[in-house]
């Protein structure tokens, strides 16, 4: 894992959160319930927050370990993207229930990434 990979990963996640946010605000707003839209926005927020953290860590390369990188990267994919899948499938009346348990696993990975960052800093 290189500094370049971390920064590219952060940039891709950041870019996608902006695209998904615009999609949610302009297109999905018309088809999602208020609760579904709020869930979708939660996925976007967590994705962007962790993209920013990855970017900062990418520029402070000594602060990040492979474990932190992978916890944040896989955590974003499992947490945010499972929320997107749950919300979009629910809006079509065919909720992908198998994604329900994926979200907390992603959240656990995100929290573990923060814990590892704390340990690494300490």
From TrEMBL:
Protein name (database record) = DUF423 domain-containing protein
- Hey, what's the signal peptide range on this chain? none
Topology in membrane: Multi-pass membrane protein
Q: Upper lineage ranks?
A: Bacteria, Pseudomonadati, Bacteroidota, Flavobacteriia, Flavobacteriales
Entry's family note: Belongs to the UPF0382 family.
Q: Which PANTHER family match?
A: TRANSMEMBRANE PROTEIN 256
Tell me, in one coarse class, where this protein mainly resides: membrane
Residue ranges of the TM segments? 6-25, 46-61, 67-86, 98-119
Subcellular location, in the record's words? Membrane
| Example of a GO cellular component annotation carried by this entry | plasma membrane
Keywords linked to the UniProt accession: Membrane, Transmembrane, Transmembrane helix
List the InterPro entries hit by this protein, alphabetically.
DUF423
